[in-house]
């Protein structure tokens, strides 16, 4: 395989087929040089910005959006706006000043910025996160250049990341996902720029990126900081720079660590880290990475096979120009994070989010190596990677087709779609859930068709039928979203064993008979709504809309891209009959 | 920076394959890999046929007039074809969330006659809260909450308005939606 080794002055030769660079203004030269990056960013923005209102804010997103709204009112993410308390998950979620301290605050200020621009809408809540997502493509592009030094790797990484359906899905959510991915690329980039030409401005950029990463997601921040620190000590330590670097570390520490005094870390639903079940969680999440993010295993196997075939054909070993540089060691903190975070006993896919930007570069590296062996296999692999999940599923398809007993595989090949709790058995995944999908086209479809789902229908119904002075009881998982979209008085079930704070409980107090109830048996058994405790006082109004539980759940494996026709086609909303009743007697009952 | 220029042929091959995938997707948005299923019927007891997904969900259907708990409603059963549906969700580590919409249920008699459930009409006319619960149970999703692991049992009564009774077998048809995986058509045959 012929490769061109070029310096910057000869870089243009690499574009001889696709984009001949013409002399022109600085802008046209810039566009000509980076046309692929620009094209990928524009297409990605199209997919992430269009149809923003198709899937309403899911629980975590709605919390961010409501807190962003409150930032505009109070200057900080206050959980209580005088009308609605953002759904807390455990005692430490909200502090004595009613500030939300469950997560760092960067995401709430981003949500506030978007809402200030576009109002309290899905677009407003998500806009700046989408912009962060677009900028991450630039970050991946630049980082790939730094760590690979190979034009094919840079191009593949940019395309793979910019067209990744999970990235699209995460970028369009008002959560910490997109800013975290952006900052994960900016921190090593800023560091590498500084070590290349040490100066105060470059160092301050590194400090800024690091501090913002902390205030986006401090778990990954700790690993990235440790990684950069070790990299400096092992490879870049110089007597001329050590004081500057130490000053940067101190500044970062001052601007980050006091947060822990203000907001001591807590655990979701008070579940503490545990070694019990760690190996199962590790297996599940590694397979999540393979099946949903990047098919590392399949690509590695293809590469090994190609090398083997070349060897038995006695072809002379060609020189590979696709190599890892020392700087790629800066990816290792993400690997360490993956192994560490799983001491936490949950199974949510987005915990693996830091893998996405770095994984694109690793995938690009493997793809470029495959292409070095066989260009057409490289082309086919890239097409399948972008358009389908076939490569992701190859190991599961293989075992299913070979007819291997799933019970024998379960320990190292569990169902990768587990979420929150352990997933259904592997046998169920193989026989019922295993499907070849075309997620990129599904997302395209999402932006083109009206998508009806339960939360959207509930919101529309209440906007039309509920009066501003009425109280609406909503299942806790949708309560913040309904409040955000309607501005109505929304309450939810507050009898949580995780909430012991009496002040919060007082804020969560709800009337015995709310004017409206959006019932879902996920909150209460259906018999309660059927019993005489409720039934005589409420009119049951059927709302024609799919009844579903995973409607806008933000992870790819359960996301509904189109109106769910298989779920029941209606659900009840309960309306209180009349106003003349004695609440005290009902409470006594 | 090393580089190996892309040839037009490899770019066109990639784009062409993506177009082919788009064409496939526009006809079949998802392709199920396995032709197997874990689901099985147990029809050995002709008075209580059952179905299970073999991961914790079992549904039994019986004739209502054979259920001792419902003996108080025998008179009602004279006017209807009445069946009891028992849904059993075993305690597991994963949630089992299902719906059984009444509007998708039916009773077929022989090959020609098909009856819809009359639960809503009967429920609207009754003042008996227990009967109402039995008739409306499946309007309320049967949920093994995401965070709960205990099993649960639901019992519902189905009433089909009898018009012309003809001898021969009857089949109770249910349509199950197992959130978020799939919709399943179930058929429980009964012979006289």
Largest sheet of chain B: 6 strands, antiparallel
Identify the biggest protein-protein contact and residues per side. Answer: A-B, 86 and 61 residues
User: What structural class do helix, strand and pairing data of chain A support?
Assistant: mainly alpha
Per DSSP, what share of the residues of chain B sits in E-state strands of 2 or more residues?
A: 35-45%
Low-confidence blocks of residues of chain B: none
* Content of β-strand of chain A: under 5%
| Overall average residue pLDDT of chain A | 89
Distance between the termini of chain A: 82 Å
Radius of gyration of chain B (Å):
24 Å
Mind describing the biggest β-sheet of chain A? 5 strands, mixed
Indicate the percent of residues in helices of chain A. 40-55%
Radius of gyration of chain A using CA atoms only: 26 Å
Find the structural class of chain B using helix and strand composition. Answer: alpha+beta
Order of helices and strands of chain B: EHEEEEHEEEEHHEEEE
Q: How many strand elements of chain A?
A: 7
What is the number of helical segments of chain B per DSSP (H or I, 4+ residues)? 4
Assembly form of the protein: heterodimer
Helix content of chain B: 10-25%
Distance N to C terminus of chain B: 82 Å
Q: Report the uncertain regions of chain A.
A: 1-20, 579-589
If you average the pLDDT of chain B, what whole number results?
91
């Amino acid at each position: 395989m012929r490769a061109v080794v070029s310096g910057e002055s000869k870089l243009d030769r690499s574009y001889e087929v696709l984009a001949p660079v013409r002399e022109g203004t600085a802008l046209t030269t810039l566009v000509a040089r980076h046309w692929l990056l620009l094209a990928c960013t524009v297409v990605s923005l199209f997919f992430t910005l269009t149809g923003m209102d198709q899937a309403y804010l899911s629980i975590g997103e709605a919390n961010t959006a409501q807190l962003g709204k409150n930032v505009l009112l109070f200057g900080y993410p206050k959980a209580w706006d005088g009308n609605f308390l953002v759904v807390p998950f455990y005692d430490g979620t909200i502090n004595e000043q009613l500030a939300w301290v469950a997560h760092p605050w960067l995401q709430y200020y981003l949500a506030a910025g978007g809402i200030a621009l576009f109002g309290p809408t899905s677009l407003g809540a998500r806009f700046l996160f989408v912009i962060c997502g677009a900028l991450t493509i630039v970050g991946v592009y630049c980082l790939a250049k730094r760590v690979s030094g190979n034009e094919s790797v840079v191009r593949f990484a940019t395309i793979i990341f910019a067209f990744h359906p999970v990235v699209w899905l995460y970028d369009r959510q008002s959560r910490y996902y997109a800013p975290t991915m952006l900052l994960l690329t900016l921190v090593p980039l800023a560091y590498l720029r500084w070590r290349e030409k040490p100066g105060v401005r470059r160092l301050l950029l590194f400090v800024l990126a690091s501090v913002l990463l902390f205030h986006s997601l401090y778990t990954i921040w700790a690993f990235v900081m440790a990684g950069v620190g070790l990299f400096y000590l092992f490879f870049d330590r110089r007597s001329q720079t050590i004081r500057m670097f130490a000053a940067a570390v101190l500044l970062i520490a001052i601007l980050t660590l006091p947060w822990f005094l203000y907001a001591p870390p807590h655990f979701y639903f008070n579940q503490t880290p545990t070694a019990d079940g760690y190996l199962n969680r590790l297996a599940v999440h590694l397979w999540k990475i393979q099946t949903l993010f990047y098919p590392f295993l399949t690509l590695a196997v293809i590469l090994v096979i190609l090398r083997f075939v070349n060897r038995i054909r006695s072809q002379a070993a060609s020189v590979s120009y696709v190599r890892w540089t020392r700087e790629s060691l800066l990816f290792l903190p993400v690997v360490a994070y993956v192994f560490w975070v799983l001491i936490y006993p949950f199974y949510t896919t987005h915990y693996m989010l830091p893998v996405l930007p770095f994984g694109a570069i690793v995938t690009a590296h493997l793809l470029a190596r495959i292409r070095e062996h066989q260009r057409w296999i490289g082309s086919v692999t890239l097409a399948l990677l972008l358009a389908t999940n076939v490569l992701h599923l190859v190991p599961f398809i293989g075992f299913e087709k070979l007819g291997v007993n799933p019970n024998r595989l379960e320990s190292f090949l569990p169902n990768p779609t587990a979420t929150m709790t352990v997933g259904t058995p592997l046998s169920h995944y193989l026989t019922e859930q295993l499907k070849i999908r075309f997620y990129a086209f599904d997302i395209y479809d999402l932006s083109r068709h009206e998508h009806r789902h339960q939360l959207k229908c509930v919101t529309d119904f209440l906007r039309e039928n509920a009066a501003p002075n009425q109280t609406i009881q909503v299942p806790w998982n949708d309560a913040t979203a309904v409040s955000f979209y309607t501005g109505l008085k929304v309450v939810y079930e507050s009898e949580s064993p995780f909430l012991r704070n009496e002040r919060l409980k007082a804020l969560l107090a709800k009337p015995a008979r709310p004017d409206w109830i959006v019932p879902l048996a996920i909150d209460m058994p259906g018999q309660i709504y059927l019993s005489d405790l409720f039934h005589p006082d409420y009119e049951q109004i059927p709302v024609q809309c799919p009844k579903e539980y995973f409607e806008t759940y933000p992870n790819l494996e359960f996301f509904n891209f189109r109106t769910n026709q298989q779920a029941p086609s209606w659900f009840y909303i309960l309306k209180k009959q009349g106003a003349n009743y004695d609440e005290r007697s009902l409470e006594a009952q | 920076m090393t580089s190996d220029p892309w040839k037009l042929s490899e770019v066109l091959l990639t784009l062409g394959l993506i177009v082919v995938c788009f064409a496939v997707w526009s006809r079949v948005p998802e392709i199920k890999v396995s032709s197997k299923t874990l689901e099985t019927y147990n029809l050995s007891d002709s008075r209580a046929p059952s179905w299970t997904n073999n991961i914790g969900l079992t549904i039994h259907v019986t004739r209502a007039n054979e259920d001792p708990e419902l003996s108080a409603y025998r008179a009602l059963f004279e006017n209807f074809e009445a069946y009891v549906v028992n849904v059993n969700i075993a305690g597991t580590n994963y949630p089992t969330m299902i719906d059984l919409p009444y509007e998708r249920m039916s009773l077929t008699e022989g090959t020609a006659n098909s009856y819809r459930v009359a639960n809503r009409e009967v429920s609207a006319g009754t003042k008996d809260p227990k009967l109402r619960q039995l008739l409306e149970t499946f309007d309320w999703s049967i949920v093994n909450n995401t965070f709960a692991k205990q099993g649960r049992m639901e019992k519902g009564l189905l009433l089909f308005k009898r018009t012309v009774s003809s001898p021969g077998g009857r089949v109770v048809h249910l349509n199950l939606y197992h959130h978020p995986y799939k919709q399943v058509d179930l058929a429980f045959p009964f012979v006289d």
